[in-house]
Amino acid sequence: MLEIDRIDRKILRELSDDARQTNLKLAERVGLSPSACLRRVQELERSGVIKGYRAVIDKALLGAGFVVYVAVGLSSHTKESLGAFERAIAASPDVVEFHTVTGALEYLLRVEVADIKAYKLFHTEVLGTLPHVSSITSYIVMDTPKSERG
């Protein structure tokens, strides 16, 4: 594990809130000179702590604001069946992330679509066609009081 100090944590918090701020503004906010701040940011990038910078997109404005978390269980746990499931899910544009999880089920998917009708289509045409899917539990997001996504 990489050791970072209080100043690095402040830099990371500031960049998480606004990665587009200038180095001068960032330096002022964390109490460093611009050159020292830039060196620290570059070191955080070089070490892999900062993996990249992204735009936070309002998916609702683009017609994909209906978010569903989907817990999926499989009837087969062979390397081949898990790999086939993961390839199929990774290829779906509606799935923005998915995770293997511990517990009674194998996967947790985050699906972003336009509405319930679009989710039903995903449920039937994607999940419903995959072999070895034994259970599907859908959790529709009603509100997001806190999100690190922006």
Give the tally of structural domains. Answer: 2
Mean pLDDT value: 95
Largest beta-sheet details: 4 strands, antiparallel
Rg estimate, integer Å: 20 Å
> How much helicity do the residues have?
25-40%
**Secondary-structure element sequence?**
HHHEHEEHE
Q: Which CATH class of the largest domain is shown? A: Alpha Beta
Molecular shape: elongated
Widest sheet: strand ordering: 2-3-1-4
Annotation keywords:
150 residues, alpha+beta, Arc Repressor Mutant, subunit A, Alpha-Beta Plaits, 2 domains, 4-stranded antiparallel β-sheet, 5 helices, 4 strands, elongated, transcription regulation
Describe the structure.
This protein has helices at residues 6-17, 23-30, 34-46, 79-90, 116-125, and strands spanning 66-74, 95-100, 107-113, 133-140. It has two domains: 6-46, Winged helix-like DNA-binding domain superfamily/Winged helix DNA-binding domain (Arc Repressor Mutant, subunit A, Orthogonal Bundle); 59-140, Alpha-Beta Plaits (2-Layer Sandwich). It has a four-stranded antiparallel β-sheet with strand order 2-3-1-4. The chain starts with 5 loop residues before the first helix and ends in a 10-residue tail after the last strand. 37% of the residues lie in helices and 20% in strands. It has 150 residues and is of the alpha+beta class. It is built from five helices and four strands; from the N terminus they run αααβαββαβ. It is elongated, with a radius of gyration of 20 Å. Strand 2 and strand 3 form a beta hairpin. This is Leucine-responsive regulatory protein. Pfam families: AsnC_trans_reg, HTH_24. It comes from Stutzerimonas stutzeri RCH2. GO terms for molecular function: sequence-specific DNA binding. Keywords: Activator, DNA-binding, Transcription, Transcription regulation.
